[in-house]
């Protein structure tokens, strides 16, 4: 049976993702990779994101009643090296949160503002979170986040965004994640991630 264009794109995408994961294994064979290793891994993910033909919008629809959706492209049997394509509408935002694992984000299209915060010391009195950096993730750019780093996101528009995310462990294997109140620095458990396909 002959493959149609969509089947061929999906096959090429799956092969490209598998090759990318193998490169990342070499660079990030650790639960706490060095900044240099994360920087090298960002470059690998940017290369995958730059292959625009692999990421047509029709392959990654956003449900009408949601602002985002995550499509799992790869995850090891033990939950490691989870790769997601995440389409998002303008206005999608997440308050400051951690991941408890390393994370990489690379832009395919659209713009997402990331605000990175200093993490409050355990037992510190209530105080506003301190912004330590801001970064825009768009086509051709990327961001690496460590296990204890805090960031907030907002999709700026004008159009929809699609970004690639890679996590040391997939959403279903993360425990102890927190969301932080930017006004007080207080943390609370991160809710179960919905919107996965």
What does this structure look like?
With 197 residues, the chain is an alpha+beta fold. The chain has a single domain, classed as Jelly Rolls (Sandwich), CATH 2.60.120.10. 19% of the residues lie in helices and 32% in strands. Strands 1-2-9-4-7 form a five-stranded antiparallel sheet, with helices on one face. Strand 10 and strand 11 form a beta hairpin. Helix 1 packs antiparallel against helix 2. It is globular and about 55 Å long.
Q: Notable features of this structure?
A:
single chain; 197 residues; alpha+beta; Jelly Rolls; five-stranded antiparallel β-sheet; 2 helices; 19% helix
Gist of the model:
Helices cover 19% and strands 32% of the residues. It is an alpha+beta fold.
In the CATH scheme, the class would be Mainly Beta
- Tally of individual helices: 2
Please give the number of β-strands. 11
Q: What's the helical proportion of residues? A: 10-25%
CATH homologous superfamily classification? Jelly Rolls
Distance between the termini: 27 Å
Q: What Rg do the Cα atoms give?
A: 17 Å
The SSE order reads: HHEEEEEEEEEEE
| Mean pLDDT across all amino acids | 92
Fold topology:
Layout: H1 5-27, H2 35-49, E1 71-74, E2 80-88, E3 93-97, E4 103-109, E5 112-117, E6 131-137, E7 142-145, E8 150-155, E9 161-169, E10 178-180, E11 187-189
Helix pairs in contact: 1-2
């Amino acid at each position: 049976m002959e493959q149609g264009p969509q089947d061929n794109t999906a096959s090429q995408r799956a092969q490209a993702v598998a090759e990318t994961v193998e490169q990342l294994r070499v660079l990030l064979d650790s639960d706490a990779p060095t900044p240099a290793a994360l920087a090298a891994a960002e470059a690998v993910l940017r290369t995958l994101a730059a292959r625009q033909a692999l990421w047509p919008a029709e392959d990654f629809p956003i449900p009408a009643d949601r602002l985002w959706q995550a499509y799992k492209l790869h995850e090891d049997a033990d939950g490691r090296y989870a790769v997601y394509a995440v389409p998002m509408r303008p206005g999608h935002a997440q308050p400051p949160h951690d991941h408890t694992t390393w994370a990489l984000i690379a832009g395919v299209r659209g713009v997402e503002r990331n605000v990175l915060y200093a993490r409050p010391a355990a037992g510190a009195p209530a105080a506003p979170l301190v912004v330590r950096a801001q970064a825009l993730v768009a086509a051709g750019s990327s961001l690496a986040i460590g296990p204890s780093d805090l960031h907030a996101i907002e999709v700026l528009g004008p159009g929809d965004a699609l970004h690639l995310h890679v996590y040391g462990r997939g959403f279903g294997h993360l425990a102890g994640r927190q969301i932080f109140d930017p006004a007080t620095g207080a943390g609370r458990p991160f809710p179960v991630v919905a919107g996965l396909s």
